[in-house]
Amino acid sequence: MEHLPDLCKRDNGDTVNKTYPKYALMPQFTIQRDILCDTQTDGGGWTVIQRRTKGDVFFNRDRESHKNGFGKPDGDFWLGNEAVHILTYMQRHELRIEIQSDGKEYFAHYKSFKVESESNWIQPLRI
Question: Which residues are in the Fibrinogen C-terminal domain (predicted)?
Answer without folding.
Answer: 1-127
